[in-house]
Amino acid sequence: MKTRLVSRRLAGFTLVELLVVIAIIVVLAAMGLSVGARAMNRGKETKTKNDAVGLVHAIDDFNREYSRYPDFGAQSEEIRVEGEVGGELLTILLGKEEVGDSMQNKKQIDFATFRESSNKSQGGLVYTSKDSGAKPEGLYDSWGNALYLVIDTDNDGEVPDPFNAGKVVRESVIAYSFGADGKAGGGDDVKSW
Prior knowledge:
193 residues; four-stranded antiparallel sheet; 15% strand
């Protein structure tokens, strides 16, 4: 009787094979995270653009209804839509002014529909509190910065381009955000035009 020697290889992976598999998983995870981060940032840009365009439409609609722009105490053409001045503008556009002779939106028309948020870091329309008498605090981009607004106060159909010195935008009202980095330029700015 002959005996056969059978070589038996143990089942499993070698250390090199395991390291290759781990490296592939790490690369795929990194690619997935970067794609996910880009998609989330695009979503934030879209939400901010919708709010900026909504603000411009609300002001244009107010102008069509009352044949003038709202007077909300702005000291210059460019304002940040927060604080006392921005809150006053939002109060007028939302039809939430106190009833009286000094009302600008006498028909109490709600010209704006913004996404609402409980805090500015999430972006959208933020109120001073959650009770029924709350006033708008501001309108924020998805990175927690107030939107900027420029209105054509001299009625020449153009406003200064905030991103290109010396140039103009042929619009009567524009709104914008400096994007995730909070600075002009860099390719992440969000514009209503």
